[in-house]
Amino acid sequence: xxxxIKVNFEEAYPTVSARDLHGGLGIKTQFRTxxxxxxAYGFSEHEDFERLYQKCSTAGGMxxxxxxxxxxxxxxHICMIQRSEKGRLYRQYFLELEKAWNSPxxxxxxALQLANQQVRELSRQxxxxxxxxxxxxxxxxxxxxxxxxLDQILHSPSLVLTTQIAKDYGMSAIRLNKLLCAWxxxxxxxxxxxLYAPYQGQGYTCSTSxxxxxRDGTMEVKYQTExxxxxxxxxxxxxxxxxxLPVVEQQxxxxxxxxxxxxxxxxxxxxxxxxx
Length: 276
Fold this sequence. Notes:
With 276 residues, the chain is of the alpha+beta class. The chain has nine helices and eight strands.
Protein backbone atom coordinates (compact mmCIF):
# COMPACT_ATOMS: atom_id res chain seq x y z
CA UNK A 1 0.00 0.00 0.00
CA UNK A 2 1.30 3.43 -0.91
CA UNK A 3 2.09 5.96 1.81
CA UNK A 4 -1.15 7.73 2.72
CA ILE A 5 0.33 9.99 5.38
CA LYS A 6 3.76 11.07 6.64
CA VAL A 7 4.83 9.00 9.64
CA ASN A 8 7.29 10.28 12.24
CA PHE A 9 9.72 7.57 13.41
CA GLU A 10 11.98 9.85 15.46
CA GLU A 11 10.37 9.03 18.82
CA ALA A 12 10.19 5.73 20.72
CA TYR A 13 7.07 4.84 18.74
CA PRO A 14 5.71 6.10 15.38
CA THR A 15 3.33 9.05 15.33
CA VAL A 16 1.44 11.09 12.74
CA SER A 17 0.26 14.68 12.56
CA ALA A 18 -3.34 15.17 13.66
CA ARG A 19 -3.69 17.97 11.10
CA ASP A 20 -2.41 15.69 8.31
CA LEU A 21 -4.89 13.00 9.36
CA HIS A 22 -7.71 15.56 9.55
CA GLY A 23 -6.95 16.65 5.97
CA GLY A 24 -6.46 13.11 4.66
CA LEU A 25 -9.79 11.92 6.01
CA GLY A 26 -11.53 14.88 4.37
CA ILE A 27 -13.08 16.09 7.63
CA LYS A 28 -15.34 19.11 7.03
CA THR A 29 -15.38 20.26 10.66
CA GLN A 30 -12.67 22.78 11.56
CA PHE A 31 -9.60 21.20 13.11
CA ARG A 32 -9.77 23.22 16.33
CA THR A 33 -13.29 21.88 16.92
CA UNK A 34 -12.72 18.36 15.61
CA UNK A 35 -9.64 17.37 17.58
CA UNK A 36 -11.06 18.10 21.09
CA UNK A 37 -14.10 16.06 20.07
CA UNK A 38 -11.82 13.13 19.19
CA UNK A 39 -10.00 13.45 22.52
CA ALA A 40 -13.34 13.07 24.29
CA TYR A 41 -13.29 9.38 23.31
CA GLY A 42 -10.77 8.75 26.08
CA PHE A 43 -7.46 9.99 24.74
CA SER A 44 -5.12 12.05 26.95
CA GLU A 45 -2.13 14.30 26.37
CA HIS A 46 1.38 12.86 27.03
CA GLU A 47 -0.04 9.33 26.69
CA ASP A 48 -1.76 9.31 23.32
CA PHE A 49 -0.59 12.60 21.82
CA GLU A 50 1.84 15.48 22.27
CA ARG A 51 1.03 19.11 21.58
CA LEU A 52 3.35 21.10 19.31
CA TYR A 53 3.42 24.56 17.76
CA GLN A 54 4.56 25.45 14.26
CA LYS A 55 4.89 28.64 12.24
CA CYS A 56 2.73 28.86 9.10
CA SER A 57 2.48 31.47 6.37
CA THR A 58 -1.03 32.84 5.84
CA ALA A 59 -2.58 35.72 3.96
CA GLY A 60 -2.28 37.79 7.13
CA GLY A 61 1.39 36.91 7.61
CA MET A 62 3.19 34.34 9.77
CA UNK A 63 0.99 32.70 12.38
CA UNK A 64 1.53 30.04 15.01
CA UNK A 65 -0.70 26.99 14.64
CA UNK A 66 -1.26 24.17 17.10
CA UNK A 67 -0.78 20.60 15.94
CA UNK A 68 -0.57 17.26 17.71
CA UNK A 69 1.60 14.21 17.15
CA UNK A 70 -0.73 11.31 17.82
CA UNK A 71 0.08 7.64 18.34
CA UNK A 72 -0.77 5.08 15.65
CA UNK A 73 -3.22 3.43 18.06
CA UNK A 74 -5.08 6.74 18.51
CA UNK A 75 -5.04 7.29 14.74
CA UNK A 76 -6.62 3.83 14.19
CA HIS A 77 -9.44 4.61 16.61
CA ILE A 78 -10.09 8.00 14.99
CA CYS A 79 -10.30 6.33 11.56
CA MET A 80 -12.78 3.76 12.88
CA ILE A 81 -14.94 6.52 14.37
CA GLN A 82 -15.26 8.26 10.98
CA ARG A 83 -17.20 5.35 9.41
CA SER A 84 -16.11 6.36 5.90
CA GLU A 85 -14.20 4.75 3.05
CA LYS A 86 -11.22 7.00 3.71
CA GLY A 87 -11.43 6.08 7.36
CA ARG A 88 -11.33 2.39 6.43
CA LEU A 89 -8.32 2.90 4.10
CA TYR A 90 -6.36 4.87 6.67
CA ARG A 91 -7.17 2.38 9.42
CA GLN A 92 -5.97 -0.50 7.23
CA TYR A 93 -2.80 1.49 6.45
CA PHE A 94 -2.12 1.99 10.17
CA LEU A 95 -2.75 -1.70 10.89
CA GLU A 96 -0.16 -2.73 8.30
CA LEU A 97 2.24 -0.09 9.57
CA GLU A 98 1.83 -1.39 13.12
CA LYS A 99 2.34 -4.98 11.94
CA ALA A 100 5.58 -4.02 10.15
CA TRP A 101 6.73 -2.01 13.20
CA ASN A 102 6.32 -5.05 15.44
CA SER A 103 7.91 -7.55 13.06
CA PRO A 104 10.95 -9.44 14.42
CA UNK A 105 13.23 -7.72 11.90
CA UNK A 106 12.10 -4.22 12.92
CA UNK A 107 12.25 -5.07 16.61
CA UNK A 108 15.79 -6.42 16.18
CA UNK A 109 16.82 -3.33 14.18
CA UNK A 110 15.53 -1.01 16.91
CA ALA A 111 17.27 -3.10 19.56
CA LEU A 112 20.56 -2.84 17.67
CA GLN A 113 20.10 0.89 17.23
CA LEU A 114 19.45 1.29 20.96
CA ALA A 115 22.48 -0.86 21.77
CA ASN A 116 24.66 1.26 19.49
CA GLN A 117 23.42 4.41 21.21
CA GLN A 118 24.24 2.91 24.59
CA VAL A 119 27.70 1.91 23.37
CA ARG A 120 28.34 5.45 22.13
CA GLU A 121 27.18 6.89 25.43
CA LEU A 122 29.37 4.47 27.39
CA SER A 123 32.28 5.42 25.14
CA ARG A 124 31.71 9.11 25.91
CA GLN A 125 31.53 8.33 29.63
CA UNK A 126 34.76 6.34 29.42
CA UNK A 127 36.45 9.25 27.63
CA UNK A 128 35.34 11.62 30.37
CA UNK A 129 36.53 9.21 33.08
CA UNK A 130 39.85 8.78 31.29
CA UNK A 131 40.30 12.55 31.26
CA UNK A 132 39.49 12.73 34.98
CA UNK A 133 41.96 9.93 35.73
CA UNK A 134 44.68 11.75 33.80
CA UNK A 135 43.98 14.95 35.74
CA UNK A 136 44.12 13.03 39.03
CA UNK A 137 47.40 11.39 38.02
CA UNK A 138 48.85 14.83 37.27
CA UNK A 139 47.71 16.09 40.67
CA UNK A 140 49.22 13.03 42.36
CA UNK A 141 52.49 13.60 40.51
CA UNK A 142 52.56 17.22 41.66
CA UNK A 143 51.77 16.33 45.27
CA UNK A 144 54.08 13.29 45.53
CA UNK A 145 57.31 15.25 46.25
CA UNK A 146 55.57 17.13 49.06
CA UNK A 147 54.19 13.90 50.50
CA UNK A 148 57.61 12.23 50.35
CA UNK A 149 59.31 15.16 52.07
CA LEU A 150 56.71 15.42 54.83
CA ASP A 151 56.78 11.64 55.29
CA GLN A 152 60.52 11.80 55.83
CA ILE A 153 60.01 14.52 58.43
CA LEU A 154 57.23 12.78 60.33
CA HIS A 155 59.05 9.45 60.49
CA SER A 156 62.22 10.99 61.95
CA PRO A 157 62.01 11.09 65.78
CA SER A 158 65.28 12.99 66.36
CA LEU A 159 66.08 16.68 66.69
CA VAL A 160 67.67 18.33 63.68
CA LEU A 161 70.10 21.22 63.34
CA THR A 162 69.30 24.33 61.35
CA THR A 163 72.14 23.27 59.03
CA GLN A 164 70.32 20.02 58.20
CA ILE A 165 67.04 21.80 57.45
CA ALA A 166 68.80 24.45 55.38
CA LYS A 167 70.45 21.78 53.22
CA ASP A 168 66.95 20.50 52.34
CA TYR A 169 66.40 23.87 50.68
CA GLY A 170 69.81 24.17 49.06
CA MET A 171 70.91 27.03 51.30
CA SER A 172 73.27 27.57 54.24
CA ALA A 173 72.27 27.67 57.90
CA ILE A 174 73.43 31.28 58.03
CA ARG A 175 71.06 32.20 55.22
CA LEU A 176 68.11 30.34 56.76
CA ASN A 177 68.72 31.91 60.19
CA LYS A 178 68.87 35.38 58.61
CA LEU A 179 65.58 34.76 56.81
CA LEU A 180 63.84 33.58 59.99
CA CYS A 181 65.19 36.63 61.79
CA ALA A 182 63.91 38.94 59.06
CA TRP A 183 60.47 37.31 59.22
CA UNK A 184 60.23 37.89 62.97
CA UNK A 185 60.49 34.23 63.97
CA UNK A 186 63.72 34.34 65.97
CA UNK A 187 66.41 36.64 67.34
CA UNK A 188 69.97 36.08 68.49
CA UNK A 189 70.89 36.15 72.20
CA UNK A 190 74.48 35.37 73.29
CA UNK A 191 75.23 33.54 70.05
CA UNK A 192 72.08 31.41 70.29
CA UNK A 193 68.98 31.80 68.17
CA UNK A 194 65.85 32.16 70.32
CA LEU A 195 62.23 32.13 69.12
CA TYR A 196 60.12 35.21 69.62
CA ALA A 197 57.25 34.97 72.12
CA PRO A 198 54.49 34.02 69.63
CA TYR A 199 56.46 30.90 68.64
CA GLN A 200 57.70 29.86 72.09
CA GLY A 201 55.92 27.04 73.89
CA GLN A 202 54.75 25.50 70.62
CA GLY A 203 57.17 22.58 70.76
CA TYR A 204 59.12 23.82 67.74
CA THR A 205 62.62 23.88 69.25
CA CYS A 206 64.80 22.51 72.04
CA SER A 207 67.86 24.10 73.59
CA THR A 208 70.77 21.67 73.88
CA SER A 209 74.21 22.07 75.37
CA UNK A 210 77.45 21.22 73.57
CA UNK A 211 80.86 20.81 75.24
CA UNK A 212 83.73 22.31 73.28
CA UNK A 213 87.39 21.73 74.20
CA UNK A 214 89.51 24.83 73.93
CA ARG A 215 93.08 24.77 72.64
CA ASP A 216 94.40 25.05 76.18
CA GLY A 217 92.56 21.86 77.12
CA THR A 218 89.76 23.48 79.12
CA MET A 219 86.11 22.65 78.38
CA GLU A 220 83.48 25.21 77.47
CA VAL A 221 79.71 24.61 77.34
CA LYS A 222 77.77 26.32 74.58
CA TYR A 223 74.01 26.25 73.94
CA GLN A 224 72.42 25.77 70.54
CA THR A 225 68.85 25.64 69.25
CA GLU A 226 67.70 22.46 67.54
CA UNK A 227 64.40 21.92 65.78
CA UNK A 228 61.83 19.23 66.60
CA UNK A 229 59.93 17.46 63.83
CA UNK A 230 56.91 19.64 64.66
CA UNK A 231 59.13 22.68 64.23
CA UNK A 232 60.45 21.30 60.98
CA UNK A 233 56.91 21.05 59.62
CA UNK A 234 56.29 24.62 60.81
CA UNK A 235 59.36 25.77 58.89
CA UNK A 236 58.19 23.88 55.80
CA UNK A 237 54.83 25.66 55.85
CA UNK A 238 56.42 29.04 56.59
CA UNK A 239 59.04 28.77 53.87
CA UNK A 240 56.49 27.56 51.36
CA UNK A 241 54.27 30.58 52.13
CA UNK A 242 57.31 32.76 51.32
CA UNK A 243 57.99 31.01 48.03
CA UNK A 244 60.72 28.58 49.18
CA LEU A 245 60.41 24.85 48.46
CA PRO A 246 62.71 22.01 49.48
CA VAL A 247 64.97 20.75 46.71
CA VAL A 248 62.84 17.63 46.25
CA GLU A 249 59.86 19.82 45.30
CA GLN A 250 61.63 22.50 43.35
CA GLN A 251 60.67 22.99 39.71
CA UNK A 252 62.65 26.20 39.32
CA UNK A 253 65.42 27.97 41.20
CA UNK A 254 64.94 29.21 44.77
CA UNK A 255 63.28 32.66 44.67
CA UNK A 256 64.86 35.68 46.24
CA UNK A 257 63.29 38.14 48.67
CA UNK A 258 63.46 41.90 48.44
CA UNK A 259 66.33 42.58 50.86
CA UNK A 260 69.34 41.09 49.08
CA UNK A 261 71.61 42.01 52.03
CA UNK A 262 69.98 39.20 54.02
CA UNK A 263 70.87 36.52 51.46
CA UNK A 264 74.40 35.26 52.00
CA UNK A 265 76.22 33.15 49.37
CA UNK A 266 76.01 29.38 49.57
CA UNK A 267 79.82 29.05 49.56
CA UNK A 268 80.29 30.29 53.11
CA UNK A 269 82.41 28.04 55.28
CA UNK A 270 80.93 25.15 57.20
CA UNK A 271 82.58 26.35 60.44
CA UNK A 272 80.52 29.53 60.34
CA UNK A 273 77.37 27.49 59.65
CA UNK A 274 78.08 25.29 62.66
CA UNK A 275 78.50 28.33 64.89
CA UNK A 276 75.17 29.75 63.62
